[in-house]
């Protein structure tokens, strides 16, 4: 089945460590996104990418980094510079043709800093 | 500043008790409005897209409507399995087709 796969589902990190969250899609979508979700807040955009080898900062990019070397993959690295990384992270993708506005989401990765 | 506000924050209904969720927005260059359902610990699941004022979409017990300043998600005769967080998002006219999300409405339906 086509979809978006995020891994790991749960991740624990010690302060000062970098961690990388994986996002893979087989929907042949050009655009991919990373969102952060905190209790009581809407999803906030971290980074997005419209095409391979190109990506843009979202509203809360500080302390995060991404790469887009393949169309199918958009990994997110949470660096030690991110001061409050404990959150639920969601990856999404979207087709870029006419009438393809909706995002399709993965199941999320929950990061906890110990 | 582009803003999306959902109300109420939480809603408790008895099974069969119809109600509506609200999503109001103040944005420039709206390209579309989306409704999602999210279960605890899961990613959001797409429900509806609305593109212009006056448009309506239906799916089972859910009906979404759109005006120039807000959208409503009407739930008719809800069942316990409709319990979830409902998210509203607006699609803006800028590079990357940015979606701005509201904080969501937590719906609990008791039998």
Structural descriptors:
heterodimer; A: mainly beta; 7-stranded mixed β-sheet; 4-stranded antiparallel β-sheet; 11 strands; globular; B: 111 residues; mainly beta; 6-stranded mixed β-sheet
- Overall number of strands of chain A: 11
Of all protein chain pairs, which has the greatest interface, and how many residues does each chain bring to it?
A: A-B, 27 and 26 residues
The first-to-last residue Cα distance of chain A is 36 Å
Calculate the mean pLDDT score of chain B and round it: 92
What's the gist of this structure?
With 114 residues, chain A is mainly β.
Describe this structure in words.
- The complex is a heterodimer of chains A (114) and B (111).
- Chain A is mostly beta strands and 114 residues long.
- Chain A has strands at 4-7, 10-13, 19-25, 31-37, 44-51, 54-57, 64-66, 76-78, 87-94, 104-105, 109-113.
- In chain A, the strands form two sheets. In chain A, strands 2, 4, 5, 6, 9, 10 and 11 form a seven-stranded mixed sheet that branches. In chain A, strands 1-3-8-7 form a four-stranded antiparallel sheet, with no helix packed on it.
- In chain A, a hairpin with a 2-residue loop joins strand 5 and strand 6 (54-57).
- The radius of gyration of chain A is 13 Å and the shape is globular.
- The termini of chain A are far apart.
- Chain B is an all-beta fold and 111 residues long.
- In chain B, the strands form two sheets. In chain B, strands 2, 4, 5, 9, 10 and 11 form a six-stranded mixed sheet that branches. A five-stranded antiparallel sheet of chain B has the order 1-3-8-7-6, with no helix packed on it.
- The model of chain B has no long low-confidence stretch (mean pLDDT 92).
- The chains are: A mainly beta (114), B mainly beta (111).
